[in-house]
């Protein structure tokens, strides 16, 4: 096999949950000498720029994002708009088509990796660039809906419950006139691309991968998990390192519900009371709830005084990989984003999942019911999470005498040891590059 270097262009959907894993893959490709041209919104450079580990080989190409109907002026990523408006950002995303085409024509890459740009394969085909749909989400979840025969034949037995399906109606804009729904975007992107790439490994999602491959009848390339290496992620901010070190090993509860989850004030306060009632130290990374300008002003009455010294509520970005690998952290309460799920699998923390959107709910079911490495927090119909449910879920995995906790810890340990084996992750990336070369060699 030739060792010539390739030029890969990347154009992910304008959400950090998409752009970040694309960049992780870009770093893996660049450390093997390949060139990556990465297209992203101007503002995203502020957050992602420092994560470019190979600036000599990875070049960012900022795109001008124009205003779109129904989207606030200046919004460029899904972090800038509420969940129900994410699909409306698609208009601004699609309006970058001219910029994307001009860059592709100028740079002439070998491949373009993309996800929600359903119009991109037509452009790349005309310019002689091979398009690959790169899915950074769980293939087990995607295989339930984004395959030709849909969920009835899927070997994955995770499902949304009836009330969850109804509650999720319209969240992705399926009923909005003139808006291309996410499902249609992704389906068309996959169907029109020359190959599909999945950010997963057979050891975790083997059944779903095989099902996906059989359904689509086109090359399916696996990149592996492509997670950041904690040893190369820098040093934990002293602010958090000093605070965490005050506590005994494996006692701190770390919560992060993602940059896009904004809770109603009543639910925000209920969750904090749930953390308080565990009696454990906790670090909760949360956005200010609806109607509040800061997390401080939305805290329950007396909460700060009661939890002073053992509880922190913070709004802002933190070094999640380093926090998860800190010896004092024993439990991770996550929103169920796929990247966070993979990071939790690689860590030594127990996993509690508090999902919000349908995809996150499916991720939670996959982790809890299929892999059996996590516990999902029970919600009431309508989505309300009582403080008792959150407290019970945390204690069920933190209690050393808990039968459920013991079972979850054992399964988690098995997966962590397997995924952490020397050469495991690199093997997938190397095979991914071989498969790209084989695809390039086809006329």
UniProtKB/TrEMBL annotation:
Record keywords, A-Z: Signal, Transferase
Sample GO molecular function, one term: UDP-glucosyltransferase activity
Keyword flag Aminoacyl-tRNA synthetase: no
Presence of keyword Signal: yes
Regions that span the bilayer: none
Similarity field: Belongs to the UDP-glycosyltransferase family.
Protein name: Glycosyltransferase
Organism expressing this protein natively: Kalanchoe fedtschenkoi
